[in-house]
């Protein structure tokens, strides 16, 4: 696909996917229209960078649909002074988008090869306020810091509180909870020392976060 075609696809993504799915925050729309998603997409899928689909990355991971990424960004609404934690770096695209909204993004990825590739792309794109970590964050991530915003990009079959206390007071957590075929995207806000509110955002489906805890059931 040519640069002209990709530019048209990008415009169509904003007009036909994002706006019709209630992504109306102009700051979010501007970022998603401006950042070249095809630079973060595996070469085999570059022509589909702006399609309304999940793009496979390997190892069971995907780039979420643009409309889901847009709703995530809109719901979390990072402010320029805030710090973001992303669980599941993947291609690095969402980290690059969140970095345009916040002061700093820490992104954690289980697969070292993904982190390495994402770092190369972020460097090429001139994104300097993203720090990548490699590790298993399926049950939470405790690096001694608290974050204003946490985005979990893989689904959690069972909702746990491994990320709740990593939020600052007033901090927001985005998670996709449940099992196929229908899952629920949630916005969880820390409203007190031991209190969190929960808002249901929309129904969707996404591959589970690798290693996410699941209670095993036994039958005779």
From TrEMBL:
Q: Which UniProt keywords apply?
A: Methyltransferase, Transferase
- Which is an annotated GO molecular function term of this record? protein-L-isoaspartate (D-aspartate) O-methyltransferase activity
One of the Pfam families matching this protein, by short name: PCMT
One cellular component (GO) term of this entry: cytoplasm
Please give the biological process terms from Gene Ontology that the record holds: methylation
Signal peptide from the UniProt entry: none
Query: Would you identify the family this protein belongs to, as annotated?
Result: Belongs to the methyltransferase superfamily. L-isoaspartyl/D-aspartyl protein methyltransferase family.
Q: Give the protein name, as stated in the record.
A: Protein-L-isoaspartate O-methyltransferase
- Source species: Spiribacter salinus M19-40
**Source taxonomy lineage?**
Bacteria, Pseudomonadati, Pseudomonadota, Gammaproteobacteria, Chromatiales
């Amino acid at each position: 696909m040519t640069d002209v075609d990709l530019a048209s696809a990008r415009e169509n993504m904003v007009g036909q996917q994002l706006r019709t799915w209630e992504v109306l925050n102009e700051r979010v729309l501007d970022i998603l229209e401006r950042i070249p998603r095809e630079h973060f997409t595996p070469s085999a899928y570059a022509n589909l960078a702006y399609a309304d689909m999940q793009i496979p990355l390997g190892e069971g991971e995907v780039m979420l649909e643009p409309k889901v990424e847009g709703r995530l960004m809109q719901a979390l609404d990072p402010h320029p002074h805030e710090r973001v934690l992303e669980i599941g770096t993947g291609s690095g695209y969402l980290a690059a988008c969140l970095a345009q909204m916040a002061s700093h993004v820490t992104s954690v990825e289980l697969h070292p090869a993904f982190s390495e590739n994402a770092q190369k792309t972020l460097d090429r794109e001139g994104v300097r306020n993203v720090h990548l970590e490699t590790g298993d964050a399926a049950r939470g991530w405790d690096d001694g810091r608290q974050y204003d915003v946490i985005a979990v990009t893989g689904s959690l079959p069972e909702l746990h509180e491994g990320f709740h206390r990593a939020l600052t007071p007033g901090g927001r957590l985005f998670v996709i909870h449940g099992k196929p075929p229908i899952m629920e995207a949630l916005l969880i806000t820390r409203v007190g020392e031991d209190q969190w509110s929960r808002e249901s955002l929309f129904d969707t489906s996404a591959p589970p976060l690798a290693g996410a805890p699941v209670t095993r059931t036994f039958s005779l």
